[in-house]
Amino acid sequence: MTEHIQPLLQSMTISVKENLHPYDENHETFDCYLQRLDNHLQLMKIDDSTAERDKTCVQILISRLSPKIYQTLTKLTAPDLPNSKSYKELIKMLKEHLAPQASIIAEQHKFSLRTQHEGETIDNYVAELRKMTTNCYFKCENCSKSTINTHLRTQFIRGIRDSEIREKLLQQKSTATFEEIVQIANSVEISKKKASQMLRTELVALQKVYSSELEGTLLTPNCIKDSPEYKTLEETLSKEFSNPDPSRKWREGVNKSSFSYLLLDPRLTKNLPNRAEQMPPTEVWKTFLESIFYVGKGKRARPYSHLYDAVKLWNAGMINDSNKKLQHILDIWKADLGVICLHVFQNVIPVEAYTREAAMIAALKLKNLRNNILGQFYGTPLTWSAQQQNKLGVALLYKAMMIFLNEGERQLKPSDIN
């Protein structure tokens, strides 16, 4: 039996000797290499307790250095050769040269600046934060206990990109551990991804098709701002209603206190203003159009009246409704997000706001919105062809998108609406 075991042990020893890969400064730190080397020596049952054993340690160390590092070592030990030094002396020289003690203040400063990168997952962000604490020496000054998890929790919340997730984390009890905070963040992120994916699946199933005038701009959105035709249509609209005849009875009067508004779905925009610079113009335009689920006309005295009914349902615990617009709003709130209410073309008389609303609905097509009826045109636009009315809507939608990109994304939750 012993005769069979002995060759096996010898082969295992040879295998262990060969399994220590040389130090590669491009793929690992010297401290990591020393940990591998120490484990290797323990497996070999070798230490530096005697002169002979120390010499073996030196030979193994030198044999696993790259030519570049060995050349550096010869300079550090000059005029002596590296193998004339003890194992501990060589390790000390190499550590001082390859892994100098980092400044604790500098490392803590770098840690405090580390935020989640664009596209970086929560798990990867956590791994990077943990890695950075290695040289930060986060310990209590009085009892020397580690405070790493407290600092990790603080920096994780501070640096996470998603403001909705951060808001959720800030609502947790002060006793919540770092692991619990990360678990909550992961849960919220997964829920948001699932909700977004479900919505996109629904949109694909719906196969949105806009008016031919709007469809024609999807691949070349810049043509809208470059074409004088679009500008002329809006100028004609504005000119007619800028100085209305007070003797003429227009719908709801001539007080310039009305505006148009668009309701956008944040599950689709995903903070579009913040992402737009890194996206092709065609994708920005398509994303903006896809996110619009309602077009309306509002009054300055009650800017959020269109959300009041939804708030009443929400406060009453009724999260389902037959009204398509209200249900869409409730679904957004259930996803722990806020409705984006974009106010545009303000300080106009009611019939101008109604006309702008009608033009945008016509361009988008009613079937792609949560509106129940088409809008109403007034004045000269009422006499235009459907093609001209749709082109007016295209021009207004493009201008609304530019306003949105410049002003940024602001969401409204039930608690934001009185």
UniProtKB/TrEMBL annotation:
InterPro entries: ANKLE1 (IPR034998)
Molecular function per GO: DNA endonuclease activity
Any one Gene Ontology BP term: double-strand break repair via homologous recombination
Domain of life according to the entry: Eukaryota
GO cellular component, one term: cytoplasm
CDD domains with a match to the protein in the record: GIY-YIG_COG3680_Meta
PANTHER family: ANKYRIN REPEAT AND LEM DOMAIN-CONTAINING PROTEIN 1 (PTHR46427:SF1)
Identification of the protein by name: Retrotransposon gag domain-containing protein
